[in-house]
Amino acid sequence: MAKKSNDIDQKSDIIQAIVIADGFGSEFLPLSNDVPLALLQLVNKPLIEYTLEFLSFGGVEEVFLFCCSHVDTIKDYINNSRNQDAVWSQTVKVNIIISESCRSFGDCLRDLDAKGLLRGNFVLCEPGVISNVKLLPIIKKHIEISTKDKGTAMTLIYQEAGVGQYGRCPREEIVVASNSENRILFHKKINHGHDRKINFPLEIFLENNCVSIHHDLKDTHIAICSPSVLPLFSDNFDFQTRDDFIKGLLMNEEILGSTIYWHLIKGNQHGGAITNWRMYQALSQELANHWFYPITPDGRTFSGSFGRGVIIGSNCSISESSNISRSIIGNNVKIGKNVTLENAYIMSNVKIHNDCFISNSVIGPNSILRSGCKVTFGSVLGANVELNKEMFVKNTLVQSKKPEEYKDGDKLSEKAYKIKLVDDEEEDIDGNKLARQFSKLHLDEEYANSDDDLLESSDSEDDLSNVHSPVPDDTNMFFSEVIDSLTRGYEDKLQCDNLILEINSSRYAYNVTLKEVNYNVVKAILNLPFQHSSGQQYLPALLRTLVYFSPILKNYVRNESAAEDCLQAIEDVAASNNELCECIAKVLNWFYDKDHLSEEAILQWFRNLDSGSRVSARVMPFVKWLQEAEEASSSDESE
């Protein structure tokens, strides 16, 4: 008889997955009081739908959905979706596991271990996972590694994401050191704003011939697990989270005899998890731009009358006089006249009356905002909240029911109460810190230190009209993608033709104009040496970069209009960076010698420069040389 194979293609091997439905935190209060995390609407579709679709497309056949709260609501939703032939319902069997006594991620896995429901390797998803990752090849690779390394416990799935990338959360930054076979030797999560120094154990360098250190990874919150994972959680009650599990196994590798590996996804595969409001916003935009295809959101996308990046659900009534930009609107929403929405997330069955202003905030389902209300600066309104006329809510969490720890001043209306969250690490001095930490939707950390100033300066209606949303628009997101592509291309010595295809793909994904493409490509190339060089080393590094990317410059700086965009990029980078400003004349000379910029374009650009600026002073000698050469040429022609 032939020996049975461990290959996942065997009919007897059913691909199973565990999905934990609860987050066990306060990140999504007050909404999570009434709406389970699994059913939180993301671009007009519950999170659990995205997760089950991902697992279905990935080849998973059986899912254990572990629920600790809102059990009946989740059960009813799963049954209704199955009856309505949801995308996943034909290929995935969903078993709902209930244990209301569990208080952590680790408790859930210990309970599953006691039930003995899983039979082999399985996929482990934390709450709010969205992805289009192809799981079967990764599972097969995990099994191959397990055959060689009997102690293999888990393969973590990561994605490339450079510092500053849109979908990379500063609160989830990680540093990973691994050997040549991608076995994790060191793993540390860096808390943004805390001590940024890292001490690596000397043993990992002494015991391994090759060690790779990565700070360009994003955790997708997806893992392939061996059968040993559940017993390891049962044997170690201090493993409350997956981070505890990773840390514990690495610290006690010799005692526990278990190892962890990681797998990097590339290309069109994408993954992430809704772990806080920042990631909620980031993944909303990525879904809207179809980064997770074939996983798609619900709702129609608008880029015309309502501005760019607007998605509207079904059965909505919106006045033509309303001004809406970068916002997602749920089903059955009614919006009155002269309403302004900027980077707002409006959930289903909400009514917004005339003259309301909503910016960088979330409005929960079935809420009502009466005429003249203003909701700003990362406020979150829970379900069924009602605001009276002309109420102003800023940087605040609001729920419809009276909180247990009620204080005078917390009541805004009969169905609107302020709430505060308990935070163990830091004292809430001004009463706003916790709202900023847990509900702020800003993506740029530089704004974290300026919130107080913004709040103090925006108390009046006039001031509100001058507030600019700190959220990066599509152009900034495109620039970040170009930086990532060029950095990887330069380091891996990729063909410039392939990089041009990547840049063009990003252009269409973010819907930016050709003028913005020309400008940002040149700006990105000029910025690359700042990551590796400074002072006098900048110019030689830049010249090497320019030579390498010359085919890209030739592709984009191809006419008079593009030359203007190129010169504007050079001017802007030089104005903010002394390194380029000091050598701008030599850089312009290089562009001129390589025929990327004409003499006429440079002289016309120089005439429009501020004569008193540092850039103008540095460019002056080169311009004089051009003018003298032009005069000499004219003189020769006249003779």
TrEMBL record:
One of its GO terms (cellular component) is cytosol. Residues 472-636 form the W2 domain. InterPro entries: ARM-type_fold, eIF-2B_epsilon_N, eIF2B_epsilon, LbH_EIF2B3/5, NTP_transferase_dom, Nucleotide-diphossugar_trans, W2_domain, W2_eIF2B_epsilon. Its main location: cytoplasm. It comes from the Eukaryota. Keywords: Cytoplasm. Pfam families: LbH_EIF2B (PF25084), NTP_transferase (PF00483), W2 (PF02020). GO terms for molecular function: guanyl-nucleotide exchange factor activity; translation initiation factor activity; translation initiation factor binding. Gene3D superfamilies: 1.25.40.180, Hexapeptide repeat proteins (2.160.10.10), Spore Coat Polysaccharide Biosynthesis Protein SpsA, Chain A (3.90.550.10). It is found in: Cytoplasm, Cytosol. PANTHER family: TRANSLATION INITIATION FACTOR EIF-2B SUBUNIT EPSILON. Belongs to the eIF-2B gamma/epsilon subunits family. Component of the translation initiation factor 2B (eIF2B) complex which is a heterodecamer of two sets of five different subunits: alpha, beta, gamma, delta and epsilon. Subunits alpha, beta and delta comprise a regulatory subcomplex and subunits epsilon and gamma comprise a catalytic subcomplex. Within the complex, the hexameric regulatory complex resides at the center, with the two heterodimeric catalytic subcomplexes bound on opposite sides. This is Translation initiation factor eIF2B subunit epsilon. It comes from Oryctes borbonicus. The lineage of its organism: Eukaryota, Metazoa, Ecdysozoa, Arthropoda, Hexapoda.
